[in-house]
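[Q] Does anyone have a clean C-alpha cell version of this?
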Amino acid sequence: MKPSLQLKLTQHLALTPQLQQSIKLLQLSTLELEQELEKYLQENPLLEREDDNYSASIGDSSSGVASEEKKSDEAEVPVANDSNNEDSWLGETEGNYASTSGSFDDDDSDYQDVQAATTSLREHLSWQLGLMSLPVRDRTLVQCLIDALDDDGYLTQSLDELVDALPPELEIEPEELQIALRHLQHFDPTGVGARTAQECLVLQLEALPVDETQQLALEIVRNHLDLLAGRDFGRLKKLTECDDDRLREAQFLIRSLNPRPGATYAALDARYITPDVVVRKVRGQWTVSINSDAYPRLRINSLYAQILSRQRGSGLSGQLQEARWLIKNVQQRFDTILRVAQSIVDRQRQFFDHGEVAMRPLVLREIAETLGLHESTVSRVTTQKYMATPRGIFELKYFFGSHVATEAGGACSATAIRALIKQLVGAEDAKKPLSDSQIADLLGQQGIVVARRTIAKYRESLNIPPVKLRKTI
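[A] Here you go.
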C-alpha cells in the first residue's frame, strides 16, 4: 500500500488548567475551599489575603460581591445531631436507647457542657477512685474496669473476657472483678458500669428513694421492659396489678432516667457550617446575597507585581498568571453559587413564606435550563453549599425533590408531604393515633394521592414510630 498524507478534522473538549481549576473550586465546600486556598497562598508568593482595612481605603474591586455585604450574624452555626422524638428510646429494643438528657434546664445544660469540655468520663471516675480507701489490688481492678468502659459508660466486655485479658501471673478470679464492679457501679454518674441498658436503668432506680412509684418502675424495668417498649399497657397493668395513674407515674419516672450516663462527659461533636449565601426579604421580595464571612478576599502582592513590571522575563511571571486565574475563578465560583441560589429562591418563594408544606417539586434540569448551565454544574453548586434563611440553615440540594401527583393534575413535593405527615401526627389523639392508611386517606381528602407504602416510607424517614408505638394510655 502506497503511503499518503491525509488531513482529518475532529472536535474534542480540551480542559485547560484554568477550566480544571474552576471546576475543582466549584465543587469544594467552604471549609475545603479555605484549605485549598491556603495551599495556593503558601506556594505562590504573588498571592496574598486582602487586608480589610487597607482594601477599604483603596477600594480594591477584587473582592466583588462580597465587599458590599455586611458581616452576617449567622456566619457560623453549630449543627448537632438531635432526635425528633424525645421519648423514642422507649420504643426501641434494649441496647439501642437514645439519651434523654436534653430535658434538663439551661443551667444544668451549661454545667454539662463545661464538664464535657474539661473532664472525660475516665478522669471523673479515676478521681472518685482516688478518694476511696481500697487495697491496692482492688483499686487496680476498679481502674481496669474504668479503662474498659465505652463512651456511654457501659462495660461491653464480660468479666471472663476481662480476666483472660489480664496478665496470668496476677491470678485474678472473676469474683474479684465482680466485687470491683460493685464498687464502680456506686460511682457518679449513676448507672455507670452497667452491662446492659436494663441494668443501667435498674442501677439508677435503686439509687432513688423507695416509694410506690419507684418500686413499680423497678418491677417494670426488671421484668417487663419489653412490654413497656412495645407500649402494651393492658398487659402491664394486668401483670403489675396497677391502675392507669400509677402506671403513668412509673412510666414518667423511667423516661426521666438517662440510659447513656457517660455521654455527659463525651467530647462534644458539633460541626460548624459557614453559609455561602444569605436570604433576606427586601421590599417584599426574597433576595439572595453572598455571605461575606464565606468569601475569601485575595489579591496580587503589589510589591512583587511592581518588580515584575520592571523585569521582563522573570521566573515569577507564570505565578502571576496563576494568581490572576485563581482570583478570577474564586469570583466566578461565588457568582455561580449566587445565580443558582437566587434561582432556587425564586422557585421556592412559597417555602420561605409558609414553610415546608409549601415546598414545590424541583429538579436540577429546571435550574440548569433557566441559567444556561449544565446539570452537572448545578449538582456541584448545590452540594455542600449552604443557605442561611429566616427558617434556618439549609444545604442548597435540600430544595430539590421528587413529586407526587395530585387529583387536580398538579404535583406536590415529597418534602411538603413529609411536613403534612408531621403535622397530622402532631395533632393526632395520643390514645387513637393515625395509621398509615388513615394518613393516606386524609391526604387524599386534600387532593394528594399517596399510597400507604409511601406514607410508611416518609414516616420512617421522619423517625416517627408506627401507630402501635405512638399509642399512650
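[Q] Thanks! Anything notable?
[A] Residues 403 and 413 are 4 Å apart (CA to CA).
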